[in-house]
Amino acid sequence: MGEVRDLELLVLVKSYPLPSQSLGEAVCVIGLTRELGFVRIYPVPFRRLEDDKQFGKYEVIRLRVKEPRNDPRPNTFRPELDSIEVIQSKLPTADKWRARKDWIFPFRSDSMCSIQQERERSNASMGFFRPQEVLDIIQEEADPNWSPRDLAKLNQEDLFMTRENKLLEKIPYNWKYRYKCEAPGCGGHTQTIIDWEINAFYLKNIKGKGITDPAEVHEMIREKFLVELCGSDKDTHFFTGNMLKHPSTFLILGVFWPPVDRQMALI
What we know:
The chain has 267 residues and is α+β, with helices and mostly antiparallel strands. The protein has helices at 94-104, 112-122, 148-155, 196-206, 214-228, 262-266; strands at 5-14, 18-20, 24-33, 37-44, 60-66, 76-79, 85-88, 126-129, 131-141, 173-181, 189-192, 237-242, 250-256.
């Protein structure tokens, strides 16, 4: 690994946890630094962190990181978990999310197509953009059970993690956004959503209420993540990042959905 360095970053999104060979389970965190732009922090066993180490979206954290041995994507780092410190509370949503926009909008790309082109030029692996039109959310059923291999990972003990959690729940669906970006001639994109929030919404508001009919599940997901977050009254943007083993494949990491600023739109 490379040298240790300190980072201060605005937390933007966390992926839903997945089984991890070394940590039991881990999430990928995408943040934004003033000097490097977007950064990827992985692996983070978020549910197993102590309370003072856990952080939320739009909080600023400080931590020590190293470059990983087996991930060549730029601005990708492995964290030193004991160094995590929340140094600024959640940025407010006042004035149509102005504080958050001031951080993030300087790093906005023109389109998803341009982010893919930039990957071919410079190996860029993360981005932020405004879709021109979000057409739908596709729902696909998935295996509701962990494989024996994944279950063994999740059940392993970690001597460095003292917090206990319930076994990570397997989400029995995958969801994908289908949209067009603002690039001229864009033929459209269909990308898997891996944001923790859509999975947490399913667990709390759908499974937690005993809803099992796939059609009803789909309708509730569409109502929240399409109608509400991507409605005409929202200035919807997507955070995106690619896969290590399939670098040309980009995923939707999260949604940024401030209210439309009519005055700025007129300007």
